[in-house]
Amino acid sequence: MTSPAAPRPGHDRTTPLHWRTVDIVVSAVIGVAVGLVFWLWSALWSATTGLFAFFPPAQAVLYGMWLVPGVLGGLVIRKPGAALLTSLAAASLEMLLGTGWGVSVLVSGALQGLLSELTFLAFRYRHWGMGVAVLAGVAGGISPAIRDNLTSHITWPLSHQVTYGVIVLISAGVIAGAGSRLLTTRLAAAGALAPFPSARG
Amino acid sequence: MNSAPLTETAPPPGRSRPGGVRSWLLGVNPAAKLITAVVLSLGLIPAVDPVTGGVVLAVTAAVVPFSGIGRSTLLVLSVPFLLMGVSTGVVNLLYGQEGAWGAFGAAVRLLAIALPGLLAAASSDPTDLADALVQRLRVPERPAMGVLAALRLAPLLADQWRTVTLARRARGLEAGRNPLAALSIFLGKLFALLVRAIRTGTLLATAMDARAFGTGPRSHARVSRWRTADTLLVVAGPLLLGAAYAVSAHLGTLRLLFG
Amino acid sequence: MRTANHDGAGARVELSGWGWRHAGRAEYALRGVDLVIEPGERVLLLGSSGAGKSTLLHALAGLTGPDGALTGEEEGRLLVDGQPANRRRGAVGLVAQDPESQLVMARAGDDVAFGLENLGVPRERIWARVDEALARVGFPHGRHHPTAALSGGEKQRLVIAGVLAMRPRLLLLDEPTANLDPAGARLVRGVLARLLADTGATLVLVEHRVADVVDLVDRVVVVEPGGGVVADGAPRTVFADHGRTLAERGVWVPGVDPAPRTGRAPGGPALVEAVRCALRAPAPLGRRRRAATVLRDVDVTVEAGSATALTGANGAGKSTLLTALAGLAKPAAGQVLPRGPLADADPRPLVRWPARRLARHVGTVFQHAEDQFVTATVRDELRFAPLRAGADEAEAAARADELLDRMRLAHLADKHPYTLSGGEKRRLSVATALSSGPRHAPDVLVLDEPTFGQDTRTWVELVELLDGLRAQGRAIVLATHDPLLLHHLADVELRVADGAVTEVLRTGTENTR
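ok -> structure tokens follow
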């Protein structure tokens, strides 16, 4: 007598609203891992060139990388709240490693994650293709696009601010959106996503 | 992960705190610090003049000697902090439309927005912060514990990243001067790290499951205490904001974001 | 003694016709398992690699339900104390092999309290139980000690404390000493021995290094991949009756050690020399201070046609020295220089060599095979190095095919490297290190814990392969804890301890210095 311990592959395992421990922990670990890598990378970059500090267009073009955790988390775990959780985890790591913003990064992480989350929600958590991913990336980018202009670039003329914002959005769509989607495909091909519905790609 | 860089002097609960008043901030409930920091940060955004920001910055900076944050931590954190300020100043000078004084003001305002958050983080232990969020602010417990557990893996992930980098060199993969090659190698490393990270996370989740995580309501081994001082701090935030706005308005320097 | 029988009577385990198949796999990990374990018994679970032992332990711990990470299909019946296995009551404790991925909290006491919090134990009683558990495992530090600052053995002890605090009636240990150095392993085995003396809990243990634990158990159960129980009884009986067959199937049976065919080391000129090196462990994350210098005044010579083994506790600097000798990391002081034929290729210190040239002459095999895979199919992995070295498509394909055959990977040529089994990944990682050099192998081969987690068959294969390479005149450098490997292969043993490297053993080679 065979009793499946879980539904056959091809169905979503368990209802989408039921979060297993592995969903929570891997969400958080993805956030921490990606956050760590980009933190190390940008620390290295800042140390060797002043590019990020003094040339905002450079910062804007690469801004998308900070938005990867949210989109990637959503695409991999595919449950409501995954994008938010992953984004918060990445922000927590940043806070732990030491940034000039301290706990405020948790707020920006929450906002970015929430915006990506809303995109996935708009597609009823059923569509996870390239288009949705890019939109989720762009949505997440709205937060820094506006926030940076209100905090760091406060004296800029509107045209500069808009340009900055647009570059951030494009970067978010490409790096965080398309990049995360491609990464998910490769991870699925390597069999790394076995416990998750995204294992099918 | 040891929260060494941020809380070298954070005393473990139950032990006597070093130097009473001089480390007052360490004993404040992290949730109170978080709330106050967020209120101050967000509250400063509508005011774009340097005076409002300056008042908040001055008061917050005055708290630093009483925050109990270790000297070396302060030194280390001051680097990104001041760099942010300088960067803001330069960026507004070069691309802004209000000249040097406007750029300076923008820098002061930015530092004022950032400092409360920085102090809150530097004077709080991550576990204590998580406890405070769960017990005081009703943040869902499982995700909070999940994030704590993932943070504990951070040194291991850093090690794995190092190994993956060495392995790339061992396979003959090095970027040299080619940025495209560098990007491709970087992405390959990120991929390898993610695979390992997911696997490690799955193992950790299994261990947590085996210890009955998520099987019922949790009790709390550590209590996140809320004292009068915490309420006072939370109240002090909006008061300080109000005072800063009032001072600026009184001096005629107040400028708001819209209008 | 206050701790006696705090765990209560042991649990009774009953499996009948039990089988499990992982999601996405065609074969069953185990099938038709019939097993009864009485309360308080100590059972050693044995079987060759892939025999589903870990799966069985996870099922006993109640982790195979729909809300667990393990998904698949179950058949038959599995009962713990007359009820299906259920992780809710905390009656079953599981200790796995890697302490790093089992510790949840940043402070020791908090981690032990974690399980108690999950069970809803009232706060007034938690800390007393935490202290009791820490005392039972002999944890040498206080409750507030950061978990990141513990050695491997201490971490594993803390994990055990966390499990004990929950007062389990069934204790499951899945290779608890596999990731530890010999000192750490001894520590943990000591804890287990003391523990078993005063607890009534039932124990099921999976362990490769059977000889070390055979005194702790009173029953041995052997399972086979895709099947059920094939042997069951007292250790002596099982090993006497089935010892040979088990050893052939890959199980490490005490008294039946594998006997690889190895020859004498031919010796040769020096190829790599570390001169007056000081080595520093990489700075741990978050600590801004530079890590302390771990090794000083290191002078090591690696000769062609010989096998040099680095031994020592984890954290003593073995890996740091190994990566320095492989030219992957820069020593804090001093240099690692090429000698002899290697110096003809490039006289600079190895760490300054361009990666391509380094890969041609020095191959490195990492402990976790996946760390060094860079492509998406097995065949591409083996074509990668020749193509980068400038070979054309045809030649690269030919070299890849040759290696595929030699390493018995031909049937996996189009699979993604990450989807291979543990043993296959190991073979592939060794193959990739071999693929880069001219004449099909680099001059120096550096391996980090190559026999980690191997069964007897793959172990023999690997040792004979390394011996063959040595006979061809290549230099082998290994970091290892494995005494059998040292015995069969090492010509020079360098012990890394207390900041220095001392030569412990040198068997006769052609060139004695």
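The longest strand of chain C covers residues 270-280.
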